[in-house]
Every structure is written in C-alpha cells, then in structure tokens.
Design brief:
The chain is an alpha+beta fold and about 140 residues long. It contains two helices and eleven strands. The strands form three sheets. Strands 2-3-4-9 form a four-stranded antiparallel β-sheet. Strands 5-6-7-8 form a four-stranded antiparallel β-sheet, with no helix packed on it.
C-alpha cells in the first residue's frame, strides 16, 4: 500500500466511522425526547407572543403564548388552513385563528368557528423546558 492509498483508505474509513456520531449529535439538537420536538426558543416566542416554525419534524407549527404564561396556557396548532392550505393567523384580541384567504375562523382549540373550512386545525401539546419551546 503506497502513501496515497493509505491516506485515501484512512480518510474514507474515518468519515464512515464518524458519520453515525455526527448524525446522532445533530438529531439530539432537534429532538429533546422521543415525543417532544423543539420548535424554537422562548426568546423567539416572547418577541411577538407567537412562534411559527414551518419545517419542524411535525410539519408546520404555530405556538401562541409567552414564557411568562403557565405552560398549559400555550396553544399549538398546525397553521395550515384545512380549506385550501393558506397559513392562518392568530388574532389575540379575538382569541381565534383567522385565515386571510377566504375568511375561515378557528377557535383556540382548533375547531372551526366559521367556514368555508370544515375540518379543524390539528392541535399539539406545548410546553417550555429550559430555553426551548416543545410540542408533541
Ligand atoms: S384557504 Fe383558508 S379559508 Fe380558504
């Protein structure tokens, strides 16, 4: 084995043996436990009282609340309107989600309050743990 073959073999072997460790380290940052998924930080949530994460492991998630409220006051839904797929907006004064496209309205529990949507928004449990906002 010449020097070039040794370096090539060693380099490929090192990368192959390190890959599982690197992948595990990356997944540990986004997965807190088996069920709970981190969707952001309390700093992000507290800026506006809303935290929209479009690409969480659960799909799109909108969390409403602040870290100053009790954890069980957090609201988390999939914000994709069940009518035709627009992203709903939280109206804090009315305590409901409204769709800007065709006017559907959903309660804080995700249930339809006004059509044209017929199916509720998917809801998630949410909590704060350390500096992270978690949903499942
Ligand atoms: S897409 Fe939301 S009401 Fe039509």
């Amino acid at each position: 084995m010449n020097r070039r073959d040794f370096i090539t073999s060693f380099g490929v072997g090192w990368i192959a043996s390190s890959l599982p460790v690197a992948l595990a380290a990356c997944s540990a940052q986004t997965t807190i436990s088996k069920d709970w998924q981190s969707v952001g930080t309390i700093g992000d949530l507290d800026k506006t009282g809303q935290l929209l994460t479009k690409n969480s492991p659960l799909g799109p998630v909108l969390v409403v609340g602040t870290s100053k409220t009790k954890t069980n006051n957090l609201i988390a839904v999939n914000p994709i309107c069940t009518h035709k797929g627009c992203t709903v907006e939280w109206k804090s004064d009315a305590k409901k989600f409204e769709c800007p496209c065709h006017g559907a309205e959903y309660g804080a529990d995700g249930k339809v309050q006004k059509g044209p949507a017929k199916q509720p928004l998917k809801t998630y449990a949410a909590k704060i743990e350390g500096n992270s906002v978690l949903v499942k």
